[in-house]
Specification:
With 349 residues, the protein is α/β, with parallel strands linked by helices. The chain has ten helices and 19 strands. Helix content is 26%, strand content 22%. The longest helix is centred in the middle third of the chain and has 16 residues. The chain binds pyridoxal-5'-phosphate. The site of pyridoxal-5'-phosphate has 12 residues, from α8. Keywords: Isomerase, Pyridoxal phosphate.
């Protein structure tokens, strides 16, 4: 027996491939003499590696960064192993062996990782030096360790802690990184994430590592008007109903109708990354009309006021306004959280 055809989901993510490619090219240009790579960790910030990586590759990106080893196979469906680096680095021997077997580069973050990599045969790697974020990376005090001389360092990396703010830490990290670059020979040097690119050419070195801005995030005002929106979620109406005055909506009855009104129940919930902080604040859109959210966001559903679009029907598609800077201002979620929590139930197209 043939397996039955699965109907399409009632959620979709429209990915504007043109905006994605344009964003990469804009960030590459803003990187001056450096080339722009691409952070594609966390399933390309929730948008889908299988969609995103080929578009970035065709736009010209040749350096891809993931965080976990588990993220490597999907990326390798689209690009050569030599263009992939794994930011978390090898913690266990299996990680190092996997890197050797696939040909992707580990990012070495500590002397422990350096030893593990060399003990497992070594080979080309990147080296992350911590210049002040105090998160992941070789501490400056470890730079003199003779073990480092045995590494075949492709890119020397560091990561900015506060590039989205105008604070003295940026210049301090820049100076520390310049200092490190003089001590550690490497084929290339890379410091800037998306916000770091907007700090100017001093921060660009040889390679930049944009993530959020590729996908429509605007971490600094300099990128306003440069970066285009990439993701447009849409959700289908499941049911339309008419409320009487006094009827309440959803869990804990946090909204009560003051007059008769038509509402629609929509296939979008916190399991889809539409978190409860949207409750009572957001709105969906239908053919130019605003449909305010009523009551609580549930796991799989929200209810919207459709007095402005009374002819709405089951199966109609509603737009979820998802300009990242605006959605962040409404919800208090970071632009990163807005993307990476989107979940698995969308048809990514
Ligand atoms: C995630 C990440 C990036 C990308 O940062 P954005 O702020 O998304 O541009 C760059 N470098 C490292 C080390 C990262 O972990």
């Amino acid at each position: 027996m043939n397996s039955p055809d699965l109907p399409p989901p009632t959620l979709r993510l429209q990915l504007d491939s043109d905006a994605l490619a344009t964003n990469w090219r804009a960030l590459d240009k803003l990187s001056h003499s450096a080339r722009a790579g691409a952070a594609v960790k966390a399933n390309a910030y929730g948008l889908g590696v299988d969609k995103v990586v080929p578009i970035l590759r065709e736009a010209g990106a040749a350096d891809f960064f993931v965080a976990h080893w588990s993220e490597v196979p999907e990326v390798l469906r689209h690009v050569a192993p030599g263009s992939v680096a794994v930011l978390h680095g090898p913690i266990r021997s299996e990680d190092a062996q996997f890197a050797r077997a696939t040909g992707v580069r580990p990012v070495i973050n500590s002397l422990h990782q350096a030893r593990l990599w060399l003990d497992n045969g070594g080979g080309p790697c990147d080296l992350m030096v911590d210049t002040g974020i105090n998160r992941l990376g070789l501490p400056l005090e470890a730079l003199a360790d003779p073990l480092l001389a045995q590494l075949e360092i492709n890119a020397l990396l560091s990561h900015l802690a506060s590039a989205d703010e105008d604070v003295a830490q940026n210049a301090r990290q820049l100076a520390a990184f310049e200092d490190v670059s003089r001590q550690i020979p490497a084929k290339s040097r890379s410091l800037a994430n998306s916000a770091g690119i907007a700090l100017g050419s001093d921060y660009a070195f040889d390679l930049t590592r944009p993530g959020i801005a590729l996908y429509g995030g605007v971490p600094r005002p300099e990128l306003d008007g440069v970066i285009r929106q990439v993701v447009r979620p849409q959700a289908a109406v499941l049911q339309v109903r008419d409320l009487a005055a006094g009827d309440s909506v959803g869990y804990n009855a946090t909204f009560t109708a003051g007059e008769p009104m038509r509402v629609a129940t929509v296939s979008l919930g916190y399991a889809d990354g539409f978190l409860r902080c949207w409750s009572g604040r957001g709105r969906l859109r239908f053919q130019g009309s605003d449909l305010p959210l009523l009551g609580r966001v549930s796991m799989d559903m929200v209810v919207v006021d459709c007095r402005s679009a009374p002819n709405i029907c089951e199966g109609d598609w509603l737009d979820v306004p998802y300009s990242l800077p605006e959605a962040s201002a409404i919800t208090g979620l970071s632009q990163y959280e807005l993307l990476t929590t989107l979940g698995r139930r969308y048809l990514r197209e």
